[in-house]
Design brief:
Distance between the termini: 10 Å
Radius of gyration: 22 Å
Largest sheet: 6 strands, mixed
Number of helices: 9
Strand order of the largest sheet: 1-6-2-3-10-11
């Protein structure tokens, strides 16, 4: 297995295509089995020309990609670079012996309903669950049922990793596009199911830190939290919630804000989120144990809060804050944890590659400097990296796949055995 990536900032699409093809073909030194292309929305008026141009210069059995407000790839100095709002083209090629590559593209009308059996989802995708496929998903922003699709895919392939992102545009808008083979698709998902001698491992950096303590939801309707309970101050750790106080979530939030530093109070005015605990039984909670969701609004009369996901009684929630320092620390902590746990990923390995799906709300606008997330990743793993800035990022929390916001999702693609 070999992966290579190249990035071009040439303003001419023909010149950019020629440059990335020449660099990647020279570096791969093997026949490519798969290509991934990410193109800046600065080229949106030329999206229809992209795939024919690539096919003209590059004989490749499988190629997918999308347009984006920013693209990520390896520059001529073999440094990861994030190009935001400017013309750029990123191409990744992979030589994948002993890997079966199954492409698909779907519209919302193709999806089974959520009461269907897993067999109908398997028939739709066209790959057997026992093949243990790993999924790369690129979604047009006008595809209307992404959450239903992810639910169905998890239902049919519960042990499979799914990573990807929603195509985006720049600040000036423009056309969107997802690509597969020689075609551009609108309002669809294009994807790959990879099976055989390959695994995709993930780092999902949601960029938040918890404040206060967890609350258990006692009353909720859909995405509205109506009542929570909090452990009493004199409760013992092993019996907390057995002696508890029930209150509205708004009261809980108001009490919490009073305990914050002035800096965090200011941050809470515009960067407050809710983390939903994914493991009902885990007591000591860490980054990665929460699914971070937007705090959509509050109802002062009822004391309720609305969050960007369904919640049910019995689940635990905790308020979170996000800023550049927290995002940086969260990503580094998760990278270090992955490095410790990935004992089968030796230092200096070259037969692997990584994909980065980062929110448009991160990048230079968050950190005040370019290339932050990508170069932090590369500080730990000297492997090719490519990707794009998304309108939503796809990755797992625990064993469930979600559509995220303000997140950087990394998919590390490697052989099962070295």
């Amino acid at each position: 297995m070999r992966w290579v990536s190249a990035l071009s900032e040439r303003p001419s699409l023909e010149a950019a295509v020629k440059e990335v093809v020449e660099i990647t073909q020279d570096a791969l030194r093997a026949s490519p089995d798969l290509g991934l292309v990410f193109i800046s929305s600065a080229f949106s008026s030329e999206y229809s020309r992209l795939m024919p141009l690539l096919q003209e210069h590059l004989k490749l059995p499988m190629l997918i990609g999308c347009g984006a407000g920013g693209v990520i790839g390896m520059n001529s100095d073999y440094q990861a670079e994030e190009i935001e709002g400017e013309p750029a083209l990123s191409l990744t090629l992979a030589h994948l012996p002993d890997v079966a590559i199954h492409p698909f593209h779907l519209s919302a009308d193709d999806l089974p309903d959520l009461d269907s059996s897993p067999d109908q989802w398997v028939e739709l995708i066209g790959v057997k669950p026992e093949d243990q496929p790993q999924f790369i998903l690129l979604v047009d922003p006008y595809f209307g049922q992404i959450n239903d699709f992810l639910l169905g895919l998890d239902y049919a392939y519960p042990g499979s990793v799914k990573v990807g992102g929603v195509a985006s545009t720049g600040a000036m808008g423009g056309a969107t596009g997802v690509f597969s083979g020689s075609k551009r698709y609108s309002e669809e998902i294009v994807g790959l199911a990879l099976s055989g001698n390959i695994v995709i491992e993930t780092i999902v950096a949601q960029g938040c830190r918890p404040i206060g303590h967890p609350y258990r939801v006692t009353q909720a309707e859909r995405n509205i939290v109506l009542e929570v309970e909090t452990p009493s101050a004199d409760s013992e750790p092993e019996t907390k919630f057995s002696v508890s106080v029930r209150l509205s979530p708004l009261e809980a939030l108001q009490d919490l804000v009073q305990e914050l530093s002035e800096e965090d109070r200011q941050l809470a005015q515009h960067s407050l989120f809710v983390g939903v605990v994914r493991d009902e039984f885990k007591q000591k909670l860490e980054p990665g144990d929460f699914l971070i969701r937007n705090l959509i609004g509050v109802d002062p009369k009822a004391g309720a809060i609305a969050i960007g996901d369904r919640v049910r009684p019995g689940q635990r929630i905790q308020f979170h804050l996000r800023d550049s320092r927290t995002s940086a620390e969260d990503l580094e902590l998760l990278i270090e944890r992955y490095q410790r746990q990935a004992s089968s990923f030796p230092q200096g390995v070259t037969n692997a590659g990584a994909l980065m799906f980062s929110c448009l709300g991160r990048g230079e606008g968050l950190y005040g400097e370019p290339n932050f997330d990508s170069r932090l990743f590369r500080r730990y793993f000297n492997i090719p990296l490519s990707g794009f800035f998304c309108n939503g990022e796809i990755g797992p929390v625990r064993d469930t796949t979600f559509l995220h916001g303000y997140t950087s999702v990394f998919g590390i693609c490697r052989q099962k055995n070295y």
